[in-house]
Amino acid sequence: MGTLSRRQFLKIAGAGTMAAAAGSGLSTHWWGLDRNPIGDPGTQGDRVVPTFCELCFWKCGVLAHVKDGVVTKLEGNPAHPLSRGRLCPRGAGGTGLLYDADRLKKPLIRVEKRGEQQFREATWDEALDLTADKLLRVREKHGPEALALFLHGYGGSWFKHLVRAYGSANISAPSYAQCRGPREVGFNLTFGSTIGSPERTDLENSRCITLIGSHLGENMHNTQVQEFADALSRGAGLVVVDPRFSVAASKADFWLPIKPGTDIALLLAWIHVILQEGLFDADYIAKHAIGLDELRRHVADKTPEWAWTHTTIPPEKIVQSARFIAAARPASVIHPGRRVTWYGDDTQRARAMAILNALLGSWGRRGGICIPSSMEVPEYPYTAYGLKPKAPADMPKGTGYPLADEVLSSGVCDASLPGVAEYDIKAWLVYGTNLVKSLPSPRRVMEAIDALDFIAVIDVLPVEIAGWADVVLPESTYLERCDDVYAATYKIPFLAVRQPVVEPMYDSRPGWWIAREIGRRIGLSDYFPWKDSTEYAMHRVHAAGFDCEELRSTGVILGKPQPAFEEDGLELTFPTPSGKIELFSKPLQEAGFDPLPSFTPPEEPPAGMYRMLFGRAPTHSFGRTINNRLLCEPFAENEVWINDGICGEHGLKEGDRVMLVNQDDARSGPIRVKATRRIRPDCIYLVHGWGTLEKGLTNAYGKGASDSDLVTRYRTDPIMGGTGMNVNFVRFEKV
Amino acid sequence: MSTTNRRFAMTVDTKRCVGCSACVIACKTENRVPDGCYRDWVVQETSGVSPDLRLEIRSERCNHCEHAPCVSACPTGASHVNEGGAVLVTARKCSGCKACIAACPYDARYVHPDGYIDKCTFCLHRTSAGGLPACVTVCPTGALAFGDLADPESEVSKLLASRPFQVKHPETGCDPNLFFLE
Fold first, then answer.
1. How many angstroms separate the Cα of A355 from the Cα of each of A191, A289, A585, A656?
2. CB contact under 8 A, A23 and B4
3. Going from the N-terminus, what domains does chain B have, and what CATH number goes with each?
4. A295-313 pLDDT, tens digit each
5. Cβ contact (<8 Å) for B91 and A36?
6. Which helix (H) or strand (E) holds A494?
7. pLDDT, tens digit, for every residue of B52-107?
8. How many domains does chain A have?
9. pTM for the complete prediction?
10. B46 contacts chain A (CB < 8 A)
11. A87 interaction partners in chain B (CB closer than 8 Å)
12. CATH number of the domain that residue A230 is part of
């Protein structure tokens, strides 16, 4: 097909006119001579409330349309830097959460009836009194440090505050040790700064983007994907390293279908080529970095031929792609990835990626990795927390992960098993995270829960972890509550507000209220002096010198743009021990680790088994959205990607249902086979979060398979305690 | 520009589209599309032999054809051509006979639970007043563009003048107005 010429435009326009005339009733359709109206579905709000999203953690600005008291649709806030008027499917589908008939509607208390564990509905007073009583007993008997909070999501701030005031430092999110932790530590060791969220990549100005297993587009973070598409449209290069022909891979100049677990070998070979051919930014490295000589020696024998034997990527492809990446420097970025807990050597892989970024001179450069800024918003003037709490119990007794810089959820979970850590955890508050799916080894999580004195779950939906709770507290959704103000750390600093769009449904309550009511009952009233979260949030906004009314009517206030790149005149600083980019890491050496990243070949799959990889779909945020009927319209359940040749060997075809059985005989529920060329023969892939056995989630129950149930093994990153979960293998059993 | 001469069209940039389905969700909420029914959807087609694979991703919907077979097939005049050439169904005139469903080469129509046939309207309630369809507004990758082919300065006209493109099922001769940029 060609390009439409002007002449054709005119022809089409003429034809269109005739057709329109016919439609208006002037001519001939033999009946229907009356007018055909343009129907209006009536979803434009009579009220439009700006707020920000909670379907994932990107926190896009949303305009919520309310008509006759019902939220009809959600649109992107054009003024908000993270949405720029657009939304991802999840953000647009937030009403599917708000109006989910399966929501938790009333507080629940566990009771034992005739030997069976059941829940009964309770009043808020009952549920809160019971929670408070248990927390007081735990503090009395075991000390405040025996309480742990697990959380995910922006509304968790109220519970962090509660638990700090109570006196415990065991506050953790699986988003660290089960997700992005290794990259934060790896980049921090190299540049003295972490990546943070939103990622500080400047994709919109990149001339080359390299993704190591990261599947942007399927991993759908609104602004990041906007920038990604803009960059590709501008003609930016794209290199995708992935065992799977991902959506991103389909748009790439180089798709390198790497053998899983061998990324460090490829990265070292790329560094080898770039150093040997002098393709790196010598001035930048001379000015900003230390350890080049050690790096040269380290990669001297890491040739493309050496890497080929491990990665299965032909040497000429390695050389060509290295040159391609280097040619675009400094606007050439090796994307740090998001969930990077794969093989237990993940901090070292992140280090290799950071080193490569350094050689490209991309840190602090336009099109590379920006230096973000944020607006100053003073903390609420709370009474200072009491005594300094005991150090968290997130590491096994006598050992440690010396470079962890956040509390490890997996470690806190283990500390609930008696005698594992320095002291035992005896009670959990779980906010917005389904630990049965978000921590590795569900069996271990259940054993830990069994050893507790008390567990309360605060959530919107009856997720699996709620079934393990003593008390379930139904929270209002993000569209029904005000949370803390959000002062983003981003290339454009801004301040955003989440405000209630409609009144809380059912007998749900916003998190701030729940936290305050628990606090009041355990003698922490002084820590909750505000009337409500709006008063709290607006106090902070006012103290920061901004107009509360403006913020509430627009949803966002932009800060003064700060220089984010060296090109803007920014003086680059690197808060590492040496004050330089540390290609060679002395802190790692001193802690007994490789100061430069080394490659260890991964374990081979047992005969007849395949490495299980898992990732994201753009329509879903882990298991949080699997019950959202709106989001399930385009993506109703996960399927298992199996190489079509392997399918042939097993007599499987597209649409068959199989159970996945792992090396420890853990098995999934039935899952549909996607027989595809788009994945290597030595691994399988599924979207994370499905296969719930919680019957209260009536839409999601029984759909798809749970990858989490098959993560019975994980390899812990010795540097920072991340749990590498891509170390499980599965076989197929036909249903 | 006169509003009566407009010729609405949409372009789908297959280079930008990541197949996220935001268009599907935005359409469903904007237009109160019933559960299990779709006015737009995403198609992914793989071709080639590994590692030389190709994946085409398309956000699809009614093509609002110039010579719309669904309109010709409609015995009641419910299917008709409205403003800007948009093909619409007037629910109260529709008998639900499905002749249009059989005639449509794009499988773009569905039976509404209330008994009539329904489909994409190019969001005419928005676009006739100068707005954009909900799918175009939401699209995070900016893959979708909408506009007036009669206006050479419109975004769609410019895109079609500057980019190679294709339409689906050109052999039917129905002159679709949904263009896939390559």
1. 9, 10, 11, 44
2. no
3. 8-170 (3.30.70.20)
4. 999 999 999 999 999 999 9
5. no
6. strand A494-496
7. 999 999 999 999 999 999 999 999 999 999 999 999 999 999 999 999 999 999 99
8. 3
9. 0.94
10. yes
11. 22, 26, 138, 140
12. 3.40.228.10
